[in-house]
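Bug #77: duplicate submission created two jobs. Keeping one. Sequence:
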Amino acid sequence: MLQDPRESRTRLSWAEMKARRDPAPISLPSAESGLQPCELRWKRPIEGDGSGAVEIVCMAAGGKRLAVKGGDDGDMLATCGSCTIPSETARRPCLYLVPIKMERDHTVRDYFICRWFYRLRPEKPATTTSCICDGCPYWFPRPPLNLLKDYERATHKIIKYHEDAWAGRLPPSPLSAWTKHWPPAVPRWKRLLRPFLNLWLGWWCLAQPKSRPGR
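Kept job's structure:
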């Protein structure tokens, strides 16, 4: 299971926070042994640790820790081995595509979110890129991820939005009327037959003999 290092991290001092406001570019790691290459599996120093330890994090999960360099990598092999994000994002890398990895129904799942339309139907995010990227008029080629300064912030924002949506903490969307499931349309032959059926029922009711009081 993915670990969030922020849960066990000690609070940083003002000087440490100030030093991290404009961090140096994080170099993307080489392919780990036995794993598929992934642009979102990054190495970075552990905050507040003076030993120089390096953690391997998943940027699609908001920077959650996969493993510590040189430590047990069993969880990383299990998480990254079944991940669909590298193959899906390689099909058509887009500036507005933000893949996320979240736990839902006690299972870690991969979702592919567009910055333009992430507010539409957050209860059913796309699990592949073909349904949202193929033929999209807003597609724009994506530069290297280390050049996108707001990528981690955008990932956190989208993850938080979906967490709130799944927990029912969001107000109704103004576009919800367009995305709701409407009842199926009545077939044309039923609409044409309905007036004649009403006329026949009315005639049949009038043709019935009226019962007299006391009989």
